């Protein structure tokens, strides 16, 4: 079983706290992390404080991989899974097995932790699809829609609609998110009863049905050279210790684009792109209704969905 370090007690703080409870010291706040945009570490910390109420519930209890850019996004990134020993003891962690040992992952359960990670130049938190309490049993399924070659965003829209329709056919509710990079993520909540191998096999079956239905538009081909202009249905993240970009995470690209939750209706917005919102433009969206507020988040059975999948083509 994973070993989780408790958060250090502080006035007003607790494992479920999302809002600000204390000032988190940001070292070298003037350090520019996005040189083309003049965005500093302090700007990034302020952004993550502003989105914490929406972002932390999607991170809580999930092991993280930290994408750190101590020299700015133009430098070599650190893809860090293990929490450094100098992290304060109020940052909760979970020690989870890996081949030949264990890794002590950060659990981002509070706004303070999210801001502290920004102070460590963690531009992008990538989350597990399982929670630390049950690391071998995912409660999320993710299909990453990756345009290839000459594919454009209209092709990604097409792919998203087809994935959403098939998930509806097998009675799995789904949500949609821009990635802040090239494509979209389609996510489905699971009940956490199936292990990763079972979930991945189901995801493979899902992508197989879709590529047989639309062989000229969609592909399962992992090699870019063999995809042509089709959209790649990437289901590889549905495996133990694999991660996916977290909702509201910044991406290490010019403009500081955001991985932003959207509604299915917004897929038809002609202004939608994978980088539609940025650190500097997301504020108005945060003041509006949460696009996932009405989403069905009750986890469903993969076994039942797999039985339904076998009956459709």
Distance between the termini: 40 Å
Strand portion, in percent?
15-25%
The strand line-up of the biggest sheet is 12-13-9-11-10-15
Average residue pLDDT? 92
Counting helices, strands and paired strands, the structural category is alpha+beta
Radius of gyration: 19 Å
Question: Any low-confidence stretches, pLDDT <50, length ≥5?
Answer: 1-21
- Major β-sheet annotation: 6 strands, mixed
Strand segment count:
15
What is the helix tally?
Answer: 6
What is the 3D shape?
globular
Indicate the percent of residues in helices.
10-25%
* N to C succession of SSEs: EEEHEEEEHEEHEEHEEEEHH
Structure write-up:
The radius of gyration is 19 Å and the shape is globular. The chain is an alpha+beta fold and 313 residues long. It is built from six helices and 15 strands. Helix 1 (41-55) runs antiparallel to helix 2 and helix 4 packs parallel to helix 6 (302-309). Strands 12-13-9-11-10-15 form a six-stranded mixed sheet, with helices on one face. The protein has a four-stranded antiparallel sheet with strand order 5-4-8-14. A three-stranded antiparallel sheet has the order 1-6-7, with no helix packed on it.
Structure summary:
The chain has 313 residues and is an alpha+beta fold.
């Amino acid at each position: 079983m994973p070993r989780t370090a408790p958060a250090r007690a502080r006035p007003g703080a607790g494992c479920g706290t999302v809002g600000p409870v204390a000032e988190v010291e940001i070292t070298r706040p003037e350090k520019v992390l996005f040189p083309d945009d003049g965005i500093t570490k302090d700007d990034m910390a302020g952004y993550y404080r502003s989105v914490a109420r929406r972002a932390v519930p999607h991170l809580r209890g999930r092991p993280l991989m930290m994408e750190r850019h101590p020299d700015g996004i133009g430098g070599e990134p650190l893809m860090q899974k293990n929490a450094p020993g100098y992290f304060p003891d109020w940052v909760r962690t979970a020690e989870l097995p890996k081949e030949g040992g264990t890794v002590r992952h950060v659990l981002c359960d509070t706004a303070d932790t999210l801001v502290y990670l920004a102070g460590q130049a963690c531009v992008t938190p990538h989350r597990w699809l399982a929670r630390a309490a049950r690391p071998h049993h995912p409660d999320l399924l993710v299909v990453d829609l990756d345009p290839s070659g000459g594919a454009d965003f209209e092709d990604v829209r097409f792919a998203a609609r087809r994935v959403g329709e098939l998930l509806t056919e097998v009675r799995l509710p789904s949500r949609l998110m821009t990635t802040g990079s090239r494509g979209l993520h389609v996510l489905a909540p699971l009940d956490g009863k199936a292990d990763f191998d079972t979930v991945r096999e189901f995801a493979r079956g899902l992508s197989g049905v879709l590529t047989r239905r639309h062989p000229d538009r969609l592909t399962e081909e992992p090699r870019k050279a063999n995809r042509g202009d089709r959209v790649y249905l990437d289901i590889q993240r549905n495996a133990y210790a694999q991660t996916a970009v977290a909702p509201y995470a910044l991406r290490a690209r010019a403009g500081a684009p955001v991985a932003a939750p959207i509604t299915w209706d917004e897929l038809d917005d002609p202004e939608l792109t994978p980088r539609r919102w940025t650190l500097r433009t997301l504020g108005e969206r945060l003041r509006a209704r949460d696009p996932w507020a009405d989403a069905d988040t009750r986890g469903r059975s993969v076994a039942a969905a797999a039985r339904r999948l076998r009956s459709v083509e």
